[in-house]
Amino acid sequence: MDKETRAALLLAIWALAILVFFSFSTRQEYYVLPSLPALALLCGMWLNREEASEPGSPLRRSGMRSSMAMLVLGVAAFVICLSIAIMSPPAPPNVDFGDLLKKAPAMYKLSMGHLFDLTMGAMSVFRVPLILTAVGFLAGTFFNWLFRKKGSPLRGNLAICVMMVILFQAVHMALTVFSPVLGSKPLAMAIKKQLQPGDLIVVNGAYSVASSVNFYTGAQLHMLNGRFNDLWYGSLFPDSPPVFEDDASFEKLWVGPGRVFFVDINATGLGKLKALPMPYYEVARSGEKRVYSNRPAQ
Question: Residues 243, 223: contact at Cβ < 8 Å?
Fold first, then answer.
């Protein structure tokens, strides 16, 4: 067994060990990320061998068949993406992106389960990334097939590389649109504009759901009924900071003399505020997330 074969075997074991292991647990898309470098190297090794092989060799023929299969997928992706971009109704002006989604929490345990949150109305916000994806898939797979048909796998590989650059740009644009749902930066910046010494920030739930608020404001977060998950064990230590609130302690803070910002990430906290003998004021909203305060804006 030569060095290249041993390297390929190692890369295959690397990728399969991760994919097989996590197939027995909850299927989340980020679990497969450690296998991607191995798969990319395997693809690169195969493409290099194909390019170095003689015209008409089995590798060249398999490369041609692969390019034809990719072209079929590229045409399908072009039709699907362009159809969604054309058929999706325009979003109302100044609408919050989170209001266009339809939550499907039962699907979140599956890989890419959050895709089921998307509606045709939400897809209209992604019209530019969709068109870019459609054009990238069609052009990349077509030129890959054309160059391989003309006996130039190197140029076919370069066409695939250009296609991936276009697709990465489309993904980046889509993530920018989706960022209000994925992160809490807009909420944190709205709090930071009004935050004064002595003010408190209380998160509805665990610290992990709003850790970016702590990052952007630099303020210590309190957690309402958040004594679980990663922080549970440490919260039981006698020197643990008093930042874990229950319903009774939160009510005292809310009706007390100090200003409290309440970060509601999972859209379940408004009912708690309505039950308290103190008015609440909306400070900011972004991607179905809200920040309320027991004091009006100063």
Answer: yes
Does residue 180 carry a pLDDT above 70?
yes
71 class by beta-carbon count within 10 Å (0-12 exposed, 13-18 middle, 19+ buried): buried
At residue 26, does pLDDT exceed 70?
Answer: no
Mark residue 224 as left, alpha or beta (left: phi above 0; alpha: psi -120 to 50; beta: remaining).
beta
Whole-Å CA distances, 78 to 75, 82, 83, 109, 132: 5, 6, 8, 29, 10
Judge contact between 198 and 257, C-beta under 8 A.
Answer: no
> How far is Cα 206 from Cα 99, in angstroms, rounded to an integer?
23
Confidence of residue 188 (pLDDT cuts 50, 70, 90): very high
CA distances from 76 to 70, 99, 139, 140, 194 (A): 10, 30, 12, 13, 50
State the Cα–Cα distance between residues 269 and 252, nearest whole angstrom. 16
Helix locations, 94-152, DSSP H: 120-123, 127-149
